[in-house]
């Protein structure tokens, strides 16, 4: 019997036992003349004498009454179960570094100092962002020009002729800007008033937004000239520079007969007003927030999307702050068009500033790394 391994499934092995039939050796007579029967190997023991051949057995016929024996039953193979195991993972080709493949460097003792070359002479840091800097400065200058120019015209209705009226001593029909001091009443004089005009009122607006108006006062004759003193303290802290004004003329019943629009400006500094305080706060907010956005760009040199978007927002706020500052300090009449234009230019200036600072940061970081590497190599050579 022989144990033969047999694979029963993909992961189970078993051994099956089955009978092995070995045929009986056959003996053939060797002729006497065959030389192989007389050849012997020197030093070897003599071969034993072969037995004489025997005649094959004579078959005996079976009797008709003899029952043949039943066939011998072959025992079923015995299967030994084995515990299934996971297939072995495929062996990956592992490549290991060989020391012979590495380029051996020179020994520090074999290197002379005059043979060393500075790393900065071989590797150049990024170029200076000259173009980006010029574009940023140009956008900031354009922003200031737009804020001071006060672009965006305002449609004004004019019904009075030159010499028909004066407001704070200035003829509004002449096209000159009327200076108004909000700390005291404004005198309105109508030497030649339109027919049926008995009362007057001043209305104010900034960038198209209506502000509280003055009180309505009747015209009083003074030296045969109709005069009215109007209190305008209600907008004392709301108007910081140039604005639009309108002289409204009414009849005795309070019905508007006509109105004349003209350009006016605050007489005195507007820093102590709400727009003045807002403009300064916006400017401080821009400087503080811009520093927080520009610091990582300056240190790492990586152009982060969040920093660029943050600088775009800060630039827009800076544009609004500049337009307010121009309104406060230059008495420029602020308009919605000028505010939007300054905000857009400021947005572009903020994005360009972020790109410029990131380029400077990459150049600074590269120079620092090159200097450190050069210093280490000199130290190793020494």
Task: Please give a handful of descriptors for the protein shown.
alpha+beta, six-stranded mixed beta sheet, single chain, four-stranded antiparallel beta sheet, 382 residues, 5 helices
Q: Could you give a quick summary of the protein structure above?
A:
Helices cover 32% and strands 16% of the residues.
Descriptive account of the structure:
With 382 residues, the chain is of the alpha+beta class. 32% of the residues lie in helices and 16% in strands. The chain has five helices and twelve strands. It has helices spanning 119-122, 130-149, 274-300, 305-330, 336-381, and strands spanning 2-7, 13-18, 166-167, 178-180, 186-189, 199-206, 209-211, 217-218, 220-222, 225-230, 242-250, 256-266. Strands 4, 6, 7, 8, 11 and 12 form a six-stranded mixed β-sheet that branches. Helix 2 (130-149) runs parallel beside helix 4 (305-330), helix 2 (130-149) runs antiparallel to helix 5 (336-381) and helix 4 crosses helix 5. The chain is rod-shaped.
